[in-house]
Amino acid sequence: MIKISDLYNVLSAVVPLYVAMILAYSSVKWWKIFTPDQCSGINRFVALFAVPLLSFHYISTNNPFTMNFRFLAADSVAKMMVLMVLFIWVKFSRNGSIDWMITLFSLGTLPNTLVMGIPLLKAMYGDFSGDLMVQIVVFQCIIWYTLLLFLFEYRGARNLIANTMPDGTAPSIVSFKVDSDVVSLDGRQPLHTQAQIRGDGKIHVTIRKSTSSVI
Fold first, then answer.
1. Which of 12, 26, 141, 203 is such that its CA lies 20 to 30 A from the CA of 177?
2. Among 131, 130, 97, 128, which Cα is nearest to 116's?
3. What are 25-45's pLDDT values in tens digits?
4. Which residue ranges traverse the bilayer (predicted)?
């Protein structure tokens, strides 16, 4: 039986977060308080300082020797099942795409645990649930965010090959070398793609920055 006090605890934890988000959205969408440049600056501040510091605050309080590994294993199995279903969908369905695979995997398995999940579950189930959420955040930072970055780079490499190589040459590519000064293949920095056909008749691709010298 849900009591009034339980409902109050949940609302007192969630309402301030939603009020802040609604005010921020309204300030840009209707009230025009912030310009697009100011919004971009705020977003960069949140991404570079606020969220990393908040993550560090919670992660620093976690004791790895007391982590509930059965709980983490159950969470990992659920994420792997979702990833496997999406992989099968991309592999065997005409409508499947790596872009939607990344999007659906992020939405389905990597929710906003840090900002929304911890206050909400603490209000619903007590402090021990907050500790479990912190453990999930730690595991996500170590494993699942790294996997997500790999998927983004894989998508970037596929798009780069599709945009720079003639049609039908992709199956002939046997090596794909990226110079150390290339930070990412997301397309934000100009890149130079060099293809070389060696004695075996296969294509070897090297990715460099456009400004770097080609030897």
1. 141
2. 130
3. 999 889 989 888 998 999 999
4. 6-28, 40-59, 71-90, 102-120, 132-152
